[in-house]
């Protein structure tokens, strides 16, 4: 039997997985990390083998892999690693039966249901390429991604297929199979009840050994203009997923882990499927969407040890006040972290005071495939900081020159672009069908992230903004995040988006768009108070010259405020790709009533 997890009383005294950052960073070697991944012959490997098969020869086979919490509040469903592997094998056999070959692309458009996880890992077992899609996408974003990636099959639910795909599916000849998972009363014409078909297939399948450079994952990311980019990732990515799950997220044997990231995004794949299963922990999967009371109840009842969530959700919890979490036992928590956008310092202070633990922010991109910079459990947190580079990752602050090269900035606290030295296992291998665009993302041995940062004297990195978000006013480079963080300290403020507006005197003046919490009036008195707070925190040169109140700010469905859309609307410019813009369905409810039971 696997060792029992530490008792809740022991969790916060349990030593961190990475105990000495400086020593661990100096000694780290990717070649050694690669040797810890199962060699399937001739240096070949498979993400799914690391996530599932390798657990089957020991006591981990009967450990719970997924603890599924139904939307309607029914009894949790426990799925062991052995059972999940068998279901993934059945899906791999289904792909083989349908004639799919290694390298064929399989898209998945589904909510968090158990067969989504079996489909993802079964696809990888068969050597096909898995592409997650966000289930809240409308028909056009889905169609555009299908046209770019040309999948042979799509896995979805009957409801999502009817609502979002049925009207145009006949016009995409590349898509040969529509495989329905979840409850299917009657499969629409041209589709397959995959869940029923899998039940009739063998639960035995030999996971296919893959070249480390073989394409495994295709993740789409929106550009500031134009069509989405398809970032290609290889099977070798699992080396970084496993290392960072253990070192950056502190996953340890016996842990109960909850990632609230939607499986339609890269975070939901890297740290909602691959990382935790490679680490052999129990993954909590909640079918429902955000509900503050439900979330606190999950942390309590499921005895969650490690929790990975988004700053937007954290701010939603903050708006509900301290009374709600005080009703729940959160003592099982050992480590909590955030992902998706920079985390305001106020959220770190709030979590320390309210939850007894600070949130640990980290930084990465779709292109990096996994966490690159993190606030580690073994290091002091600097609230608002991205943290320090993951062992094995060399980061630098650079500026581009007129000849297309780069120059390193070694001085502390100088603003420049974040660059990462090539060579980590999860680095994207290309943009699908866009080789020139891919080459443009590099300068020699360095990947240029497009994010502006500074590095302090202790080696912590601080996010300033995207290269196209930075504001230059009166000779000062101002990061929107810094201004937003200052305004977020006011108790009336729920969300802030900051942009630069052209100004004849200063070059750009800073304008803030502010959404308020319920019960606060958007009047001149509050505007003056916010101006005073910003000047106090930032100085007159950095504080916004204008503050506009808004009922809500444009955000992607993953929670990021779209500053470029604020800027475009302010200046009357083209809005570009808005396929990830949060729509009318309210995916994040600020606070549930005290008696609410579902999402």
Automatic annotation (TrEMBL):
Domain AMP-dependent synthetase/ligase: 60-432
Ranges for domain AMP-binding enzyme C-terminal: 482-560
EC numbers on record: 6.2.1.1
InterPro entries documented for this protein: AMP-bd_C (IPR025110), AMP-bd_C_sf (IPR045851), AMP-binding_CS (IPR020845), AMP-dep_synth/lig_dom (IPR000873), ANL_N_sf (IPR042099)
Molecular function in Gene Ontology: acetate-CoA ligase activity; ATP binding
Gene Ontology annotations of biological process type: acetyl-CoA biosynthetic process
Highest taxon listed in the record's lineage: Bacteria
Broadest EC class assigned to this enzyme: ligase
Keywords: Acetylation, ATP-binding, Ligase, Nucleotide-binding
Gene3D superfamilies the record matches: 3.30.300.30, N-terminal domain of ligase-like
Pfam families per UniProt: AMP-binding, AMP-binding_C
UniProt keyword annotation of Transcription regulation present: no
Region entry Disordered, spans: 574-599
Protein name: acetate--CoA ligase
Species name: Alkalispirillum mobile
């Amino acid at each position: 039997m696997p060792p029992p997890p530490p008792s809740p009383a022991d969790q916060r005294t349990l030593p961190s997985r990475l105990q000495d950052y400086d020593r661990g960073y100096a000694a780290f070697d990717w070649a050694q990390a690669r040797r810890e991944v199962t060699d399937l012959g001739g240096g070949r490997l498979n993400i799914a083998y690391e996530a599932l098969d390798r657990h089957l020869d020991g006591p981990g086979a009967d450990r719970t892999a997924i603890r599924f919490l139904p939307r309607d509040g029914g009894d949790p469903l426990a799925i062991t690693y052995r059972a999940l592997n068998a279901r993934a094998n059945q899906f791999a056999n289904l792909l083989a039966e349908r004639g799919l070959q290694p390298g064929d692309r399989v898209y998945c458009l589904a909510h968090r249901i158990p067969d989504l996880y079996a489909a993802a890992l079964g696809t990888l077992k068969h050597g096909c390429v898995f592409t997650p899609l966000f289930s809240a996408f409308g028909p056009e974003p889905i169609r555009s991604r299908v046209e770019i990636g040309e999948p042979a099959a799509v896995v979805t639910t009957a409801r999502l297929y009817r609502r979002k795909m049925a009207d145009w599916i006949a016009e995409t000849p590349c898509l040969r199979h529509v495989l329905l998972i979840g409850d299917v009363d009657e499969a629409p014409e041209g589709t397959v009840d995959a869940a029923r078909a899998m039940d009739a297939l063998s639960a035995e399948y030999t996971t296919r050994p893959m070249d480390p450079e073989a394409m495994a994952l295709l993740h789409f990311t929106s550009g500031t203009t134009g069509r989405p980019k398809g970032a290609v990732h290889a099977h070798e990515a699992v080396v970084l997923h496993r290392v960072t799950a253990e070192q950056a997220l502190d996953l340890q044997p016996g842990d109960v882990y909850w990632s609230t990231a939607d499986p339609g995004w890269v975070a939901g794949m890297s740290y909602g499927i691959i990382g935790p299963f490679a680490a052999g922990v129990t993954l909590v999967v909640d079918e429902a969407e955000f509900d503050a009371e439900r979330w606190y109840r999950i942390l309590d009842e499921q005895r969650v040890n490690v929790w990975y969530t988004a700053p937007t959700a954290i701010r939603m919890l903050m708006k509900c006040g301290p009374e709600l979490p005080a009703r729940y036992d959160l003592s099982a928590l050992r480590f909590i972290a955030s992902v998706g956008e920079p985390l305001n310092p106020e959220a770190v202070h709030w979590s320390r005071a309210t939850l007894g633990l600070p949130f640990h922010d980290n930084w990465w991109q779709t292109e990096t495939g996994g966490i690159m910079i993190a606030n580690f459990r073994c290091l002091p947190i600097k609230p608002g900081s991205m943290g320090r580079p993951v062992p094995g990752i060399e980061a630098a602050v650079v500026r581009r020159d007129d000849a297309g090269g780069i120059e390193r900035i070694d001085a502390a606290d100088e603003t420049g672009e974040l660059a990462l030295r090539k060579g980590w296992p999860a680095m994207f291998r290309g943009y699908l069908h866009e080789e020139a665009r891919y080459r443009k993302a590099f300068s020699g041995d360095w990947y240029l992230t497009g994010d502006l940062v500074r590095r302090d004297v202790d080696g912590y990195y601080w996010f300033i903004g995207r290269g196209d978000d930075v504001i230059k006013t009166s000779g000062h480079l101002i990061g929107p995040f810094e201004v937003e963080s200052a305004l977020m300290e006011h108790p009336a403020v729920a969300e802030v988006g900051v942009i630069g507006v052209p100004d004849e005197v200063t070059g750009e003046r800073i304008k803030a768009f502010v959404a308020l919490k319920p019960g606060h009036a958007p009047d001149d008195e509050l505007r003056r108070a916010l101006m005073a707070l910003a000047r106090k925190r930032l100085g007159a040169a950095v504080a916004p010259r204008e503050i506009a109140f808004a009922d809500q700010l444009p955000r992607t469905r993953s929670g990021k405020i779209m500053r470029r859309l604020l800027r475009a609307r302010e200046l009357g410019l083209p809005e570009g790709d808005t396929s990830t813009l949060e729509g009318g369905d309210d995916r994040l409810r600020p606070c549930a009533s005290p008696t609410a039971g579902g999402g």
